[in-house]
Amino acid sequence: MKHKLLMLLLPFLLTSCSLQDFFPKGSETTKQETSPVSSPVTEEEKSEPFVTVDTSSEEENKPEIITVFSINDLHGSIKEYPYQKELGLAKLEYAIKHDIDYDPETSIIISCGDSWQGGYLSHEEKTITDSLLSKMGVECMVLGNHEFDWGLETIRNLREQSPFPYLACNIKDPYGGSVHDLSDSSTIIEKKGAKIGIIGAMGPNEESSISTSALENYTFSEDLNLIQAEVTKLNNAGCDLVILGAHDSVKNSDYLDQVGNRFSTSDIQGIFGAHDHKFIVDTAGSHSIPFAEGGSNSKGYCKMTFSLKTKKALEVKMVKDAYSKYHSIDDSLLNQEIVNTITAKSVEYSSDTKLCEFVGDFNTYAEMNRFVPMMMLTAMENYGWKKTNKIMALHNLAGIRSSLPSGDITRELLFKVSPFDNALKVIQNVPGSQLSNVLGTIEDNHKSGYYAYMVEDDLSFNASLTYDVITIDYVSEGSYWKRNLGSLPQKNLGPNNERKNIFPTMVETLEGMNTPTFYATDF
């Protein structure tokens, strides 16, 4: 190496040029190397005429490729749930870290939101999901719309305790100002000298899926200049790759296509999505920015492998067969920190307590459309409401979140059906003629286009009658209800107008029935 360097420098020696003229300005050289060649040569230097150092740049030390893994819409599914083919976090981590493209030194795991809401343990101990995600290697999380279900103050509190940053660059307060106390706009993750910038964004118009009281009139802006500012900032910081993590999908809205029309793959090398719970590999916009989405509820993940040299995605893939490959992995092979934490918390919060028994499967959009309203009717009766009319229980279909298998139904399983902190509300003397506008087209005796409902004594709905309605505040405080029924007075279900949330009320109702048995054929 020394002889090669000497030959390279010979022309400069002959012309009495300094080595400073040879090495680029700012390069790392020793004092000796920057001295003029005509300087006196010591005896030591005669025996070692050129003391060289490693002058390879940081670029040469960086990895050739970076792989980014993304999970999305976990919805608190930290435990394995075989009936829905959900791996849980311990086995999902095993699947990702045994992926052929996973390398702990050059791989990144991110979450694209809706991580907390939906699981019993994550609801009972709010910090547990972030803690477990960190143990499995997640390095940042884009906020999702259901992070707001627990209210803004909960996001602020959890952010302070989170082991990784929350990301969203486009949250606006009620006055249109940018919000900085809920999340960062972007973050930089370093891997072996490579800098990967991750920008977070919320899908505009997702506000409609959040309870008004929880959102407090915050909005998610579609202004692409907010993303542009982060692209510029990350490039100025020397990022080798810029990735957009979005709680949105190319199949769900045109927001990400707008991103792909505005930005090229030299600006944003890839987009990871979420929100519609699908496995997707696609592109966004006219510039065809690679897009990937990884399902939901710990069922799988997605990934992109990038070349740092070309700044292009070499592979974009969704992995939706993770459950079939890894559900039988023995617990002894899993991350024991995750396994032990989940086991201990399950005991602490009595998640395995039996509430009732199902004979036959109870499916969403079928048996569950009857079961949940039936629980609401029973609760209203138990609280001694003096009805003035026939009672109708009304629940939005999208809020009934899960099917349940035949067998013992525990707190943990029941929570998956109704995982929102929705308060039960009673509205009396509701004209059926106006109520029919809310229900829309009635599909059968228990379902319309957007609602599951049940009239006491399992009667059919009659628009000519007047009803006392029990529903949830997500429905009764929503714009659709108010537009059709005005501001009819509503009260909390509990005595003295005490707030009663739907899940604990369902638990209380079942406990009062002494572990009943329900048959799917009756529903």
Summarize this structure briefly:
This protein is an alpha/beta fold.
Structure description:
This protein is of the alpha/beta class and 523 residues long. 29% of the residues lie in helices and 23% in strands. It is built from 18 helices and 24 strands. The strands form 6 sheets. It has a 6-stranded mixed β-sheet with strand order 4-3-2-1-13-14. It has a 6-stranded mixed β-sheet with strand order 6-7-9-10-12-11. α15 packs antiparallel against α17. It starts with a helix and ends with a strand.
Comma- or semicolon-separated keywords:
disordered N terminus, 29% helix, six-stranded mixed beta sheet, alpha/beta
Counting DSSP H or I runs of 4 or more residues, the number of helices is 18
Q: Largest beta sheet: what is the strand line-up?
A: 4-3-2-1-13-14
State mean pLDDT (0 to 100 scale).
89
Unreliable residue runs = 1-56
Query: Rough shape?
Result: globular
Strand content: 15-25%
- Distance between termini? 82 Å
Helix content: 25-40%
**Main β sheet profile:** 6 strands, mixed
Class based on secondary structure composition and strand pairing: alpha/beta
| Rounded radius of gyration (Å) | 29 Å
DSSP strand tally: 24
